Amino acid sequence: MTAEIRSLEDVRRFPSGGAGRLWSATHEEIRAGATADVYFVKTMEILRHLGLQDTPVVAEIFPSRPGILAGLGECLELLRGRDVRVWSLDEGDPFAAKEVVMRIAGPYSAFGIYETALLGILSSASAWATAAREVKEAAGPAPVICFGSRHLHPAVAPVMERAALVGGFDGASSILGAKLAGREPTGTIPHACVLIVGDTVTVAQAYDAVVDAGEPRTVLVDTFKDEAEEALRVAAALGPRLSSIRLDTPSERGGVTPDLVREVRARLDQAGFSHVRIFVSGGVTPERIPALREAGAAGFGVGSYVSSARPIDMTMDLKEVDGRPIAKRGRIPGVTPNPRLKPR
Asked: Is there a domain that residue 151 lies in?
């Protein structure tokens, strides 16, 4: 168990170097304050010297631009057991630029060292949820699955996938990301499987044999042959048991275009396989989705658009100190009214 960092001496004693461990912070290290900016530890040293460490304060967190709130659960978990009261928007709520999304009241010593972590949690998770909402609004009723874990450090990939679900995605491919959100992971098969076996139809038949009967059969069809040809071969082999084919044509071959989707859809329909849906992945963005849907795409796998979302800057300001309204220059002293905040 990592001891809580309360002084500069604790900072000096904290082990240096990354040998024998992953470089990501553990839950215990985050709770201990090891991910805090050191100036918050210096602040506590000064306040203790002056006998002011337990001064009651009210802090407010607000964003730099509009978005969708995510990360609330982690923030509340970080503050659990602390002598604080918290108000916030609901997770998944939209927020405006500079709208107060969270308010914390209590002795500064109870939560001051967590400012870095709280802002980082909300900044990243809200950005991912916001990007996911943009995708889902473009996709409408078509299901969207998050494929973004491969673009992030594995320590934070589940956080991103959970945020995508908060933003409206219908599923997540990473095991932990889905499980933490109370879901089952969703995914098809990778090109690696087809490359090892050497034939898409053989893979499809084996897939059909080994997965649970209730799981939809979705088969990747762009590894070796023309996508339309491979889709027809797989559909003929699996018949009514085939739920979808997945198009993930690489950029070297032009990617998945509306014309490709339209051709595959037409050929499947002409061959009597109208029940087979077309699932598209690979560089999918909100801008590309409408044309792909119009061409016949019925579902999407989206990764980098969400995982690469620019963080939404979050700021924490003290607005009351010892019951007195206060603020830095440029900000209005005192608690900012927001009737949307709920007690937690």
From this structure: yes
Same structural domain, 293 and 152? yes
Would 195 be classed as within a structural domain?
A: yes
Per-residue pLDDT reduced to its tens digit, 116-159: 999 999 999 999 999 999 999 999 999 999 999 999 999 999 99
Residues 265 and 315 in one domain: no
On whether the CB atoms of residues 126 and 69 are closer than 8 A, the answer is: yes
181 in the same domain as 274: yes
CATH number at residue 75: 3.90.1170.20
Do 83 and 111 meet the contact criterion of CB atoms below 8 Å apart?
A: no
- Which alpha helices (H) appear in the chain, and where do they start and end? 8-13, 27-32, 38-50, 72-79, 108-111, 115-139, 157-166, 175-180, 191-197, 200-210, 227-238, 258-270, 289-295, 304-307
pLDDT digits 0-9 by tens, 198-216: 999 999 999 999 999 889 9
Burial of 19 (C-beta count, 10 Å sphere; 0-12/13-18/19+): exposed
State how far the Cα of 340 lies from the Cα of 151, in Å rounded to an integer: 34
Residues 234 and 323 in one domain: no
Q: Are residues 174 and 225 in the same domain?
A: yes
How distant, in Å, are the alpha carbons of 163, 171, 334 from that of 138?
Answer: 18, 16, 40
Residue in the structure block whose two tokens are 């405006």: 96
Q: Which residue has the tokens 């979705």?
A: 218
Rounded Cα distance between 222 and 201, Å, is 12
Partners of residue 146 on adjacent β-strands:
172, 302
- pLDDT band per the 50, 70, 90 thresholds, residue 76: very high
Domain that holds residue 153: 128-307
Give pLDDT tens digits for 262-319: 999 999 999 999 999 999 999 999 999 999 999 999 999 999 999 999 999 999 999 9
- Average pLDDT of the chain is 96
Cα(196)–Cα(189) distance, integer angstroms: 12
d(CA 121, CA 314): 9
Domain count, the chain: 2
Backbone angles phi, psi at 243, to 5 degrees: -85, -50
Q: Tell me, yes or no, whether 260 lies in a domain.
A: yes
